Amino acid sequence: MVTIKQVAEYAGVSVATVSRTLNDSGYVGKESRRKVEEAIKVLGYYPNEVARSLYQKSSKMIGLLLPDISNPYFPLLAKGVEDYAQQNGYMVILGNVEDNADKEDMYVKFFSQYNISGVLSAASGKRKNNDRVPYVLLDRALEEENYSISTDDRLGGKLAGQAILESRGQNIIVMAGPRHVSGANDRLSGALSVLNAAGASYRVFETETFQVDRAEETAQRLFDTFKSFDSVIASNDVYALAVMKEAIKRKYRIPEDIQIIGYDDMLFSRLMYPGLTTIAQPAYEVGFKGAEMLVNLIEKKVIIDKKVKLKPELIRRDSLR
Amino acid sequence: MVTIKQVAEYAGVSVATVSRTLNDSGYVGKESRRKVEEAIKVLGYYPNEVARSLYQKSSKMIGLLLPDISNPYFPLLAKGVEDYAQQNGYMVILGNVEDNADKEDMYVKFFSQYNISGVLSAASGKRKNNDRVPYVLLDRALEEENYSISTDDRLGGKLAGQAILESRGQNIIVMAGPRHVSGANDRLSGALSVLNAAGASYRVFETETFQVDRAEETAQRLFDTFKSFDSVIASNDVYALAVMKEAIKRKYRIPEDIQIIGYDDMLFSRLMYPGLTTIAQPAYEVGFKGAEMLVNLIEKKVIIDKKVKLKPELIRRDSLR
DNA sequence: ACTAAATGTGTAATCGGTTACAGATTGAGG
DNA sequence: CCTCAATCTGTAACCGATTACACATTTAGT
Question: What region holds the HTH lacI-type domain (chains A, B) (predicted)?
Answer without folding.
Answer: 2-56
